[in-house]
UniProtKB/TrEMBL annotation:
A Pfam family: Pyr_redox_2
Keyword Flavoprotein: yes
Protein's UniProt name: NAD(P)/FAD-dependent oxidoreductase
Species whose genome carries this gene: Candidatus Dactylopiibacterium carminicum
Keyword Oxidoreductase attributed: yes
GO molecular function: oxidoreductase activity
Keywords assigned by UniProt, alphabetized: Flavoprotein, Oxidoreductase
Superkingdom of the source species: Bacteria
PROSITE patterns: PROKAR_LIPOPROTEIN (PS51257)
């Protein structure tokens, strides 16, 4: 039996940058963190960041996968446990205020008590489910479609190809920029106004890319040499034949599992209309003992560096709340 008090134990759901950072800080603050990871490896969204990430200070020229390996190695060197292929199935609040967590693991059902839970489950990119309602989608060659971060792999093969990108943010326009540089003929479609970095949008306008705001994909059909798309635009419907379709339509938070996990003793945590957890300035959720960090609660600035920062902040706040409960 673990002799350390449950009140000092922290259950961290998710081992992306926010969860790993929270675990590191909790360990250094004298707490007892345990990371619960649904997948077989840590890193979260970094595992599908195939480009070099030049936005993390001191880590030049590293892909998301390389960053994840470094972060995990740091945590593992400290002996912080990471339970892989595991998920919470139930949480209850005990009479002493601690939280009882039940897990489904590769070794069966297990559990432990903790003084706090940090939700750092991140987000997932929108994929095929976004296009399922588009007429003709099921009849088209799925090999001509890419979704989310996978749109950034093998960009060099797009030379001479006709590419339709659905999305209006930074990811969509960065993808357009790279594809154009590789020799692709690019069309970008967004449901509302474009909201990417100005340098990307200016570059695409200058390059002569076809840009359609307030537009949507209305129909898909197989074509002899690709996909025949119908775009509904303010100027009317237009047909565009393409070789490839890239969907870069944003992310959604991994919070839907919470409603099935919380027992009767724990009211639901407050979420916004998109499902993101709502936290105060100290990373606290709407119920005592629950905290959140990273993209799962930060829709305005999702990034590796903000996740690292918020994970550290959550750990520090838990340590403070133990000495002066709110």
């Amino acid at each position: 039996m673990d002799p350390r008090p449950a009140s000092r134990r922290i259950c961290i759901l998710g081992s992306g940058p926010a969860g790993l950072s929270c675990a590191l800080w909790a360990h250094n603050l004298g707490l007892d963190p345990k990371l619960i990871e649904l997948n077989a490896q840590s890193g979260g969204a970094m595992q599908v960041n195939f480009l070099t990430n030049e936005w993390v200070l001191g880590h030049r020229g590293m892909t998301g996968q390389q960053l994840a390996a470094n972060f995990v190695a740091h945590v593992e060197a400290l002996g912080i446990p990471i339970l892989y292929d595991s998920r919470p199935t139930n949480m209850e609040r005990l009479s002493d205020g601690n939280l009882q967590i039940t897990l489904d693991t590769p070794h069966g059902i297990s559990g432990f008590d903790a003084g706090a839970v940090v939700i750092a489950t991140g987000t997932r990119f929108r994929a095929r489910e976004t296009l399922l309602s588009v007429p003709g989608f099921a009849q088209c060659d799925q090999g001509r479609m890419r979704f989310g971060p996978h749109c950034f792999t093998h960009i060099e093969t797009l030379a001479g190809q006709r590419l339709l990108i659905i999305g209006g943010g930074d990811n969509a326009f960065e993808n357009a920029t790279l594809a154009h540089a590789a020799g692709a003929h690019v069309t970008v479609v967004a449901r509302s106004v474009f909201h990417a970095q100005e340098r990307f949008m200016t570059g695409m306008r200058t390059a002569g890319a076809k840009l359609h705001e307030h537009a949507r994909l209305a129909n898909l059909r197989p074509a002899p040499s690709g996909l025949l798309t119908t775009l509904e635009t303010p100027q009317g419907n237009i047909e565009v034949e393409v070789d490839r379709l890239h969907l870069l339509a944003g992310y959604q938070p991994n919070t839907e599992f919470l409603s099935a996990v919380f027992g009767a003793s724990i009211p639901p945590l407050q979420r916004d209309t998109e499902g993101y957890l709502q936290v105060d300035a100290q990373c606290r959720c709407s119920q005592p003992g629950f905290y959140a960090a990273g993209d799962v609660c930060n829709r305005l600035f999702p990034s590796v560096v903000s996740a690292i920062s918020q994970g550290a902040q959550a750990a520090r706040q838990i340590e403070l709340d133990y000495s002066a409960p709110y």
